[in-house]
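Replying to the earlier thread about multi-chain prediction with a worked example.

Input:
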Amino acid sequence: KAGVTQTPRYLIKTRGQQVTLSCSPISGHRSVSWYQQTPGQGLQFLFEYFSETQRNKGNFPGRFSGRQFSNSRSEMNVSTLELGDSALYLCASSLGGHRGNTEAFFGQGTRLTVV
Amino acid sequence: AQSVTQPDIHITVSEGASLELRCNYSYGATPYLFWYVQSPGQGLQLLLKYFSGDTLVQGIKGFEAEFKKSETSFHLTKPSAHMSDAAEYFCVVRGVYNDMRFGAGTRLTVKP
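Result:
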């Protein structure tokens, strides 16, 4: 069974631009969550979607947004990019449900560099 | 709010020696706890998980961890380290809506 697929793997953008990252979860998984990983802040939770609804959001500015489609694929958008947005963005998929005893599987990540 | 503390930023062990990576959590209820490993430039791989039941959990690659509620700890151990174990290790507590809170990570170096 295919794992979590994130595209693109690498991206270089200019300050002020916007970017969209994509995540295809494991077939049958309905929950997708997003994380930002930087050397200074470590791994931080961005938001989680389940059945096209955002259920929880981390402490990030409104420039970070996301959505989930009916096939559970998810996109994350960052507008007005800043240098500090350079990071590895990881998505994770799981079966979902309310605190179900299921584990999350991570994609390889998208490495975003803002210049 | 849930949180995780990994007090050791970097640990070095010799190949064949035992290792312990420490993790303490803070959570209002019985937590769901995980250990993930990340090799350079890679995503995260699940080593083991604790949901309930037996407090000593076995994972992949010979790792195990023990959930100790009284100490709010979930330390990761392995009896004999291999060179291939060199990586970054993250302890994670999961909240209500699959929002995982990561520790700062412990970088493990294995000396020949």
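The two ends of chain B are 41 Å apart (CA to CA).

Feel free to reuse this layout for your own posts.
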